[in-house]
Design a protein that fits this description.
The complex is a heterodimer of chains A (112) and B (113). Chain A has 112 residues and is mainly beta. Chain A contains no helices and 9 strands. The chains are: A mainly beta (112), B mainly beta (113).
């Protein structure tokens, strides 16, 4: 499994765009990049997933450069309710089985 | 679907007692995962199943921990005997095959005193 590195914490003011970058230098050809969000006292929740270039949904955008060694989760105009821990995961079908392993995550604090 | 259902939501037990955590995955999901979350160690994968078969239990901390999946709709994680250092939030998650998202339950907060 590719190891991921992301900042431990970030602060942002309400209404600003937040970009969280994740490094995954040894990503494999068949790996996907997935981001989860976790609020206190809740289980992680899927945000977005991508393989290359750019993916956008109603919640966030995911930017993946051509070499795929990093990815950036972009949250537009954050609000206080976006305060959470954000996890970057890399993995996919491998040898016929799958494994979802979390890194340390980035704790995002949105400030009024 | 009601999502992944875990029970109990909270468990307080005395050291040395047996603890059983339960999980009902989303119907039709092929994979089931058990995680443990603590402040010190974050989210740790303990074990996962594919089609009810344990595939990787390398994350199970020691022999006091065991997990079973007798059918596609039920799994248990048992700790016997429990110790204070087992105190954590235990999450169950399930997912279909393919590069798809995993769905997590609300977790069981275990406190061993």
């Amino acid at each position: 499994l590719a190891k991921t590195t992301q900042p431990i914490s970030m602060d942002s003011y309400e209404g600003q765009e937040v970009n969280i970058t994740c490094s995954h230098n040894n990503i494999a050809t068949n790996d996907y990049i997935t981001w989860y969000q976790q609020f206190p006292s809740q289980g992680p929740r899927f945000i977005i997933q991508g393989y290359k270039t750019k993916v956008t949904n109603e919640v966030a955008s995911l930017f993946i450069p051509a070499d795929r060694k990093s990815s950036t989760l972009s949250l537009p105009r954050v609000s206080l309710s976006d305060t959470a821990v954000y996890y970057c995961l890399v993995g996919g079908l491998f040898g016929g089985y799958q494994k979802v392993t979390f890194g340390t995550g980035t704790k995002l604090q949105v400030i009024p | 679907d009601a999502g992944v259902i875990q029970s109990p939501r909270h468990e307080v037990t005395e050291m040395g007692q047996e603890v059983t955590l339960r999980c009902k995955p989303i119907s039709g999901h092929d994979y089931l995962f058990w995680y443990r979350q603590t402040m010190m160690r974050g989210l740790e994968l303990l074990i996962y199943f594919n089609n009810n078969v344990p595939i990787d239990d390398s994350g199970m901390p020691e022999d006091r921990f065991s997990a079973k999946m007798p059918n596609a709709s039920f799994s248990t994680l048992k700790i016997q005997p429990s110790e204070p250092r087992d105190s954590a939030v235990y999450f169950c998650a399930s997912k279909p095959g393919g590069p798809t998202e995993a769905f997590f339950g609300q977790g069981t907060r275990l406190t061993v005193v």
